[in-house]
Write a structure and sequence with these properties.
Distance between the termini: 47 Å
Bound molecules: protoporphyrin IX containing FE
Strand content: 15-25%
Number of domains: 1
Structural class: alpha+beta
Largest sheet: 9 strands, antiparallel
Number of helices: 13
Length: about 400
């Protein structure tokens, strides 16, 4: 840790790092300069008018997010994540020996997933009793499968490897990994709760066992863009946004089986919110590396400016502190890609509040290299404890003619 600190303190960034920095600026600038919104990506039908049922006016449902398409919903669409979410992780019955693995598990999975896709399509266009009479609105359901299942098809496929053991060691066994991830998001928390109940019951009837789950929330946003997390800082500033950035950083282009898939890393991070807020604002900003008010980087410029890791004070100290979160996590420092972070705050009562970290990337190394760099001296990490963790291959999109999971398991 200290070696690293001195290395960076005493010298200019080496050429490779400078090249990566320039490369990453090319990632950050168009997204930021374009404002937070990405025009044209969020084509949603107009919201329905409020409905009157037995004298009660029901709130207008948010505009629908089509569940079907070349890629699943809940990753880059809607462009502004819905305000409420639940992430539920399940175990599927283990294969009963090698013979069953070859002859039994793949057809079982193929059927389960294709039925699940149809179930999701029905749920996302529901106005009936399943959701307690509520319209599904902008409900999105995103499905991922764990490394055990991907490896049972082909150990070389993206998603076949889990997180390295040392990154999960501190997480209790019962909240580690799992076979199936279902991420449910909607503006209306009750829609999320009903959809979770319905799908958990449906999966339970097919032998899936709930492993861990976590609800989350985000504050309302006046316009698409980052929102504040429980530490009071804008989160989700530096992420891929345009189609080009998403194609480069998030979506898998091959092999054919996983075209249109992505890799999710999910971590429930309990935060010492009180401890973080006990620092003065300048101290908090030095831990993050951005200003609390508007997320402007400490290297200068406004909120839309790219982080300049090389900027120094007159007496030679880096403006973005060496152990600050944005420096440690920055692609120029990690040498990795830029993940799409789409997390939610959570509160399970005093003492258990934090960030349900959800990130999508086309290569698990993006997360792993970033996490290692954070573990090696990020000041923010001192306020965080991982209490659940996993990685999942978010399956390619689906439609009536291309059932969920068919390219991987059929
Ligand atoms: C401990 C809980 C965490 C909190 C509260 C948190 C919060 C933040 C905040 C406020 C920012 C600056 C604004 C932005 O760019 O969104 C940020 C940036 C970032 N964080 Fe985190 N984060 C946490 C954990 C993580 C983890 C576990 C990772 C990945 C291993 C990560 C990866 C990143 C990345 C890649 C950036 C952008 C860096 C840049 O290019 O400027 N964060 N985070």
């Amino acid at each position: 840790m200290d070696t690293d600190r001195n290395d960076v303190m005493d010298s200019e960034p080496p050429p490779l790092v400078r090249r990566r920095l320039l490369g990453s600026l090319a990632v950050a600038v168009p997204a930021v300069a374009a404002g937070w919104a990405v025009a044209g990506r969020d084509r949603r039908p107009a919201a329905r008018a409020p409905e009157t049922v037995a004298g009660t006016t029901w709130a207008a449902a948010a505009a629908a997010v089509p569940p079907e398409g070349p890629r699943q919903a809940g990753v880059d669409r809607p462009a502004q994540p819905q305000q409420n979410a639940t992430l539920a992780v399940f175990d599927l019955p283990p294969p009963d020996g090698a013979a069953a693995r070859n002859s039994g598990e793949r057809p079982f999975l193929a059927r389960l997933l294709s039925d699940l896709g149809r179930r999701i399509t029905a749920l996302c266009s529901d106005t009936g009793p399943e959701l307690g009479g509520l319209a599904s609105g902008d409900l999105s359901v995103t499905v991922g499968v764990g490394p055990r299942l991907v490896a049972s098809v082909d150990g070389r496929l993206p998603g076949a490897a889990g997180l390295p053991e040392d990154l999960e060691r501190a997480v209790p066994d019962h909240a580690r990994q799992g076979d199936l991830m279902v991420q449910l998001c909607a503006a209306d928390p009750q829609v999320v709760a009903h959809a979770e109940r319905v799908l958990t019951g449906w999966l339970g009837e097919r032998s899936a066992r709930a492993r861990w789950s976590q609800g989350g929330f985000r504050p309302p946003a006046r316009e698409p863009g980052p929102v504040r997390n429980l530490l009071g800082f804008l989160d989700g500033v530096s992420v891929p946004r345009t189609e080009r950035e998403l194609a480069r950083e998030v979506w898998l282009a091959g092999p054919e089986r996983v075209r249109g898939a992505t890799i999710a890393v999910v971590r429930r991070l309990r935060l010492d919110v009180a401890g973080f807020l006990a620092q003065d604002v300048t101290g908090q900003e030095r831990v993050i590396g951005r200003q609390r008010s508007d997320a402007a980087p400490l290297s200068g410029g406004g909120p839309a400016a790219a982080v300049d890791l090389g900027a120094k004070t007159a007496d030679g100290r880096y403006l973005v502190p060496l152990m600050s979160h944005v420096r440690r996590a920055h692609p120029a420092a990690t040498g990795s890609g830029l993940m799409l972070r789409r997390g939610y705050s959570f509160s399970n009562g005093t003492g258990d509040q934090g960030l349900l970290f959800i990130a999508f990337q086309r290569d698990l190394r993006t997360y792993v290299e970033t996490q290692r760099r954070l573990d090696d001296g990020d000041e923010l990490s001192a306020f965080a404890t991982a209490t659940a963790s996993g990685t999942f291959l978010v399956l390619p999109g689906f439609s009536a003619g291309r059932p969920l999971g068919s390219s991987v398991f059929a």
